[in-house]
Amino acid sequence: MRLYPRPTPRPGFTLIELLVVIAIIAILSALTTAAVQRVRIVAKRAAAVSEINQLATSATAFKNDFGNYPPSNITIPHKVPPGVTSQEDAGYMLLLKYFPRWQVQVGTQTLTASNALQTFPGQTFAQPNTAVGIQFMSYNSITQTLAPFAAGGGTLDGNQCLVFFLGGPNLTGFDPAGPYPPSGTTRKGPYYDFQPNRLTTNNATNTMVWADDPWGSPYAYFASTGNSYLPTLQFPLPSPFGPGTWNGTTVVPYSTPTKPVNPNGIQIISAGANGTNTSTGAKGFGPGGAWIPGSAPYTAGTAGEDDLGNFNSGFQLGASGN
């Protein structure tokens, strides 16, 4: 009988083989992580572009109903009639134009604002939590009737105007029975469906909220005044009505070398992925003003490199252009 030697069992992976396998896994993991991160970046950018376009469409719908785009800012008066600053007068008359049946409470009487101008000159508006008066969105409770601002009224910036005029005082549009009744008997709006978890406040003294982009930065908004933009417009508004800057920057309406961008329309701008938090190296908004894509101050590494607007076909406003 012939005997054959038993085969020697093969030992486990050698150290070199294990290291090769680990290296391959690490490379695949890095590639997968980078791909997932890239998908997330592209998805957020697409979401921001979509929201900007929806806001622009909603602003146009508001214009079709009320005759003008939502204003870039409005100063709310604290007396009837205002008579304190020209900004208050302008804000009061704009509200009367949009809401001809707007009611205010003066003393114990509830009157339309236009009648109150003649009946009770110089009287203060209603105090908080009354059924009528100046009502805007509150960050803490979503709806709240605000007390009158200090002398000089209170100013809402462009973003806050978007929330109020596109959403309505309760995010449900403008009800004929509400504090800001539109002309006619049918509800107008809401023109845009703002999500409460995407609304934030800018400071403790002005509880009207901002609408944030997908990265958590507020949108900047500017409306033209016919065929141009007021040269004094900026976002955020200066102190005391706003923080003065967003992550160290302000933005003003955009223009080409020969004319404003969207001279008869609106501008809505997102600060992009680099506009969220200065503690992590974020840069905030690009400055606006004279704008040529890819040229300073919209080159690689600048605050405006990845900004987005409703006037650049979904492309970033800076150097990358995609």
Automatic annotation (TrEMBL):
Concerning InterPro entries, the annotation shows: Bac_GSPG_pilin, N_methyl_site, Pilin-like
Q: Which residues cross the membrane?
A: 12-36
Keyword set includes Hydrolase: no
| GO BP terms, alphabetized | protein secretion by the type II secretion system
> What keywords would UniProt list here?
Membrane, Methylation, Transmembrane, Transmembrane helix
Extract the Pfam families matched here: N_methyl
Looking at the UniProt record for this protein, which Gene Ontology cellular component terms does it annotate, in alphabetical order?
type II protein secretion system complex
List the protein's name. Answer: Prepilin-type N-terminal cleavage/methylation domain-containing protein
